[in-house]
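ZP: hey, is the zinc ion complex queued? I don't see it on the tracker
AM: it wasn't, my bad. submitting now with these inputs:
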Amino acid sequence: MEEKMMIIDPHVHMTARTTDDYEAMAEAGVVAVIEPSFWLGQPRTQVGSFQDYYSSLVGWEPFRASQFGIKHYCTIGLNSKEANNEALAEQVMELLPLYLHKENVVAIGEIGYDDQTPAEDKYFRWQLELAKELNLPVQVHTPHRDKRSGTIRSMEVCLEHGLDPSMVVIDHNNEETVKEVLDRGFLAAFTIYPKTKMGNERMVEVVRKFGSNGIIVDSSADWGVSDPLAVPKTASLMLKRGIAREDVVKTCYQNALDIFGMNGKMKESDWLNPEGINQTKLFNDNSVLRGQQPKVDTDKIV
Ligand SMILES: [Zn+2]
């Protein structure tokens, strides 16, 4: 067995996952995750729900990840689906600047189109302006319906607003969209789904065909049918199928670090010199232990 590779999953909704997932991810080599803000499966009805959600992405969830030895970062934004509730969306837009400066926020995201409605368009553009103003990378969710036209439209709107394509990750690509995304200088992320859409067998062939420049693998694991180990599993399948190790490192680690590390908040030293797991720590008087014996990396604690 080869030496364990460091993995970053740059799109995973850990709030919806269990502590078993964190343990399995750490065991599989995941050193850092990025959690995009998204919808919750059921529409929110009040701005306070967004506020508490964003607060958990910059507070409780990074703490929870740290208890299992994983660094947690997030992207903050108004998702496309809930942009359609305009009265609420207006209030959410006022909240965003309060969170974009927090210490683990690495980009604006995930934003973009769902049904490609006028309201989605309006808030997508507004948030692109915000990204430009704050010099933040952008994580774009592309629609699952009308994938190709929605992807092209997302890029065109980014360019129209003067964004540098090398600061924008276009997510949920497939074989039909990847070439156009790379040709235009954007980063192309792929979400690996366990059963449908983009599977890891197909991902191997994408990297074989297009190489590793600008390509990023993620799991988008959330409350739906999804696999939080999709990135490490794809990495090991790539190695098994003869993809060069340096290409696996780029697509499953380095490319994500390069773009999401741009604003200086996410750095390799964050996990190369870890504080160590210390489960005796508390967050606002709460722990993740539920009475279990705390695990402490005594060698790392000074
Ligand atoms: Zn997502």
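AM: back. The two ends are 33 Å apart (CA to CA).
ZP: great, adding it to the tracker
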